[in-house]
Design brief:
Chains A, B: It comes from Microlunatus spumicola. The structure is a homodimer of 211-residue chains. By secondary structure, chain A is mainly alpha-helical. Chain A is built from nine helices and no strands. The first copy, chain A, is elongated and about 60 Å long. The first copy, chain A, binds a DNA duplex (30 and 30 nucleotides) through helix 1 and helix 3.
Chain lengths: 211, 211
DNA sequence: GTGTTGTTGGAGCGACCGCTCCAGAATGAG
DNA sequence: CTCATTCTGGAGCGGTCGCTCCAACAACAC
């Protein structure tokens, strides 16, 4: 129970050919792009078929139903989001790295003209209350995100960059929350100002713990 | 242009009877509750009809289409959200008021068992990119929210509670972003910890500006 | 080659969606 | 009372939704 893989008797596939793997990947990528652009509910299975260039039977061959597909989308977007924050995210152990990470996030949203929020957060807001299994995946996704933040801050404290009374757990969570809220407001207002302000505020708080 | 009322030729009603006003209100309230629980897209017009106890023709008599109804929901929820934060929100001019406000928000989410995020923020995440008019309403809603935060912090600075280099605009925006992000993570993780941590972080930053 | 399993195409079903339409009942103005 | 306007009930239409089914093709194991 509470396995990270799909639950009981997923109509998914046991073994996948190289070709099948490619088809499956194309479906997930197409679905991810559409969900990012229009949300889960507004993304129809038929839209995914068209975008991925597959037939209905192919889609339902690899994913038993839409819910399963959406869980695959969550997994895919989690990986993509973390990758988009590299290399800074995995070594957030100096104030300079923290600032570069902040700048990268802001630049990314600016390049998107502030359209679209967080690929994971948006899904969370839409289906966290309605799909328990997806919610578990989202919790895991956020945890994968928070972990490197926590680890970077911990390293900073160990190296004496942060005072002993700085709490890496608290600060990492505050950072993630500021990021999510900043993204939402940036998406709504179509300005990167909220994202910048939210991140800068928490970073300033962290700087207050500089040793 | 950019009026706050509905735009060109809204099929809405010119004059409303007392009875009509009541019916309209019932529809908006039912729709608001359903949207809060299940989101915009998952809320069917038929669901609203059932919940409000009205027929299809009634609903379309008061609201030309679903989009118009959703804009009314945004307006209604904006009022409701602000009301739920009173009396603190309108007088956030001491640290004590700030803490009471924080406690009220946390208690509210706890009483909901962390189900459902921000009534406005959730809608924003879902349709900000797809409905330009709704997005404008949401921007206005957030502004109505941010204004008292800004005004409270400004008062604190004027009274000498905050140093001159404290920027009420920045801090108010950071507070709102932390709140939104905290609510999203709290909704996803089903714990009030993220909300508490996010708000406490920004409040701690503000306290750093205490004169 | 043969059999098994993975892969693909495409028609189509039942349910639900937002919305329309028309006729009748209630209401307010004169 | 008269009449225009507002309000209500309910059937139903065209479209879309998630999904099923069946038959054929391709790839791999032996």
């Amino acid at each position: 129970m509470t396995t990270t893989t799909s639950s009981v008797h997923a109509p998914a596939v046991r073994r996948l050919t190289a070709k099948g793997e490619a088809t499956r990947a194309r479906i997930v990528e197409a679905a991810s792009a559409l969900v990012f652009a229009h949300g889960v509910t507004r993304t129809g299975v038929e839209d995914v078929q068209r975008e991925a260039g597959v037939s209905a039977s192919q889609l339902y061959h690899y994913f038993g139903d839409k819910q399963t597909l959406m869980r695959a989308v969550i997994a895919h977007q989690t990986t993509a989001v973390l990758a988009a924050q590299q290399p800074e995210l995995d070594a957030l152990d100096t104030f300079e790295a923290l600032e570069r990470w902040r700048d990268r996030l802001v630049a990314l949203q600016r390049s998107r003209h502030c359209v679209g929020g967080c690929p994971i957060g948006s899904i969370a807001a839409e289906i966290a209350d309605d799909d328990p299994e997806a919610r578990a995946d989202l919790v895991a996704g956020f945890e994968q995100w928070e972990a490197p933040l926590r680890s970077g801050l911990t390293t900073m404290r160990e190296r004496g960059l942060l005072a002993d009374d700085a709490d890496p757990d608290r600060l990492a969570l505050a950072l993630l929350a500021a990021l999510q809220g900043g993204l939402l407001l940036t998406q709504t207002r179509r300005t990167t100002v909220p994202l910048e302000t939210a991140l800068d505020a928490v970073i300033e708080l962290i700087r207050g713990y500089a040793a």
